[in-house]
Amino acid sequence: MENDRQGAAPSADVQRRLYELMVLMKAADDRLSKGIASGELQCVYWPPRGQEAIAAAVGVCLRTDDQLVTTYRGLHDLIGKGVPLVEIYGEMLGRQVGASRGKGGTMHIARPESGVAMSTGIVGAGPPVAVGLAMAAQRKGIDRVTVVSFGDGATNTGSFHEAANMAALWDLPVVLLCQNNLYGEMTPVEHTMKVETIAERAQAYGMPGVRVDGNDPLAMVAALEEAVDRARSGGGPTLLDCVTFRFRGHYFGDPMAYIPAEQMAAAQLADPVPSFRAALASTGICSEHELEELDQAAVAAVEEALATVLAAEPASADELSRDVYADPTNCPV
Amino acid sequence: MDEQVMSQREALNLALDQALAADERVLLLGEDIADPGASGPTKGLSTRYGADRVLDTPISEAAILGAAIGMAMDGFLPVAEIMIMDFIGIAADQLINNAAKLRFMTGGRVTAPITVRTQVYGGLGTGATHSQSLEAWFMHIPGLKVIVPATPRDAKGLLTSAIFDEDPCLVLETIRLQGQRGPVPLDPSFSIPLGQGEVKRPGTDVTLVTYGRGLVESLNAAAALEAEGVSAEVLDLRTLVPLDVPLLLECVSRTRRAVVVHDAIQFAGPGAEIAAMVQEELFDVLEAPVLRVGARFVPNPGSAALEAQVYPSVDRIVSAVRRTLGKPAAEVGGDV
Asked: Are residues B323 and B269 in the same domain?
């Protein structure tokens, strides 16, 4: 099933908001990348640069109480769901102002107030947890939706298949959001699965599977709105196969020797952030002046957050023995 | 407190039944746990509480534990069953990387207080992949609690504590103990705090430090030793994490000799940690090295003739005790 942007395009306000989120995600990645590359910042990082359209759609389609389970490549998703930059950068850089006061690190950022239930470091670990969050909503009789974000590689894990089957079996309010960036770590997706699309895997579980242009925020909003509405109204889960690209490889510093030059060049032409910026200008939804303001505001927000984080204290030594157990009595902590 | 004599299986069932009755947040999920397929400790509960609270799942161990974690993150108190402990490898990622670490990784913002019940089938001829006592794997994971009840009373009290504990708990139920009968308090509020061992038999010459099915063999060994004039104390640890180190050290300080007994493989098993701790703390008072009697380091065989040689036996425990007393093991036969 291909999604071809059925229904009306989002309002001008929503489109502006999509760009605002996308350019903030890109600015946050650019600043972090520059800082790590120069030695100014020390942290591990799995960059989502290029996948912004998907996360921006998450940002405009979900309510705050809707739950997101994301992964180590989650900077864009976290921004989309409303986690403050200070908490994200603070956690990545191991400061007390981090979402987990520096105890989680880049891979493990959660913020219940924003509906970010958890970020997983193990490929495929998220979908089973999303099933449980959806089971909880179903049992409480609340119309909350859980979106679980993962890459193409995760769809080859047993955990994904177990969770997809359960989600469909019990009509759970879940959206399985595959950010298909064409590589599982360093291996191209076509080397790891016989099926041509990840979307078609949904048929095996009796749920809709939709392939979407993951670089087009308007197509993403259309597909995600439909999936979220289905989940919220009791229609069960949907698998979205959002085709995109990662520009910085698997981890920051990845030499990317495995990516053909032609593929990279073509992907850069389809870079969702400048592409959507050009589309907003050409449709007249935003003037060049407005776009420049959004660009500058994003850079300013990132610089301000980073300055706050760099001025903050590193994780406190007493954190090491806190939160291992609720009650550590007689535990070897 | 009113008590009734019942089997361990019935005691576990009573704990689950009373938890389901007491708290709407409690729910059970696992393979074949609902009626009419249920035959173990969950029998009858889906009939009483409904299929929504006692939930049969697909054979999907990773998703069972993941789903339990997701529900626990949102305020439920799920009790997930991994039918046989050997299957836990399939689900281990969820247990060790999500349940155990969420509290720490999120600075206390997100927690997953699940209970995982699992059954150990050792000694029943079920072979190498349906028999293992794998508690040592999980003792090694900060954030998990590991509980191994031996008696019907302890089974009820410890499972109740686990269900309502704020940390993720792994409860090992031993199939060979499930038919054993004993008095069990009927009061729903009865529980046994995690991290409290219990001296199951007093003694003065040596402490047999044990848990789970090791308790049965240890008590039998203590009776055999009594006939030889040796007074063996039997300490049932009941939980491995938390571990009742104060009681352990108090007991061994008194007897000055210890033998650790368990059904888990001896090499790198729980006894290794326990022996090391005792020797670190009590080196000056010990009269002999702390010895271990655990399962032999082989895949568990199918043949009863072979399997009988794998687990701790009265002979092996008595031989170990005799070594700590400086007596020749050969008098009673058997190898340690």
From this structure: yes
pLDDT (tens digit per residue) in A29-52: 999 999 999 999 999 999 999 999
Alpha-carbon distance B190 to nearest alpha carbon in chain A (angstroms): 20
Kindly list the residues from chain B whose CB atom is less than 8 angstroms away from the CB atom of residue A326: 103, 111, 113, 165-167
- Does residue B202 share a domain with residue B162? no
Closest-approach residue (CA) in chain B for A135: B71
In this structure, is residue B190 part of a structural domain? no
Would the pLDDT of A7 be above 90?
Answer: no
Query: Is residue B217, in this structure, part of any structural domain at all?
Result: yes
pLDDT in tens, A48-65: 999 999 999 999 999 999
- My answer on whether B167 and B283 are in the same domain is no
- Residue B142, in any domain of the structure: yes
Q: 165-184 in B: which are within 8 Å (CB) of A?
A: 165-167
* Full set of structural domains in chain A with CATH: 12-68+120-252+259-311 (3.40.50.970)
Residues B225 and B285 in one domain: yes
pLDDT value of residue B331: 54
Asked if this assembly's ipTM is beyond 0.90, the reply is: yes
The fraction of chain B above a pLDDT of 70, given in percent, is 98
> By residue range, what is the domain housing residue B247?
198-330
Q: Please report, for the domain that includes residue B297, its CATH number.
A: 3.40.50.920
Q: d(Cα B5, Cα A124) in Å, to the nearest integer?
A: 46
**Predicted structure pTM score:** 0.96
A26 pLDDT above the threshold of 50: yes
pLDDT of residue B330: 57
Number of structural domains, chain B?
Answer: 2
Catalytic, B130? Answer yes
B192 within a domain of the structure (yes/no):
no
CA distance to partner chain B, nearest, from residue A267 (Å): 35
Q: Is the pLDDT of residue A76 over 80?
A: yes
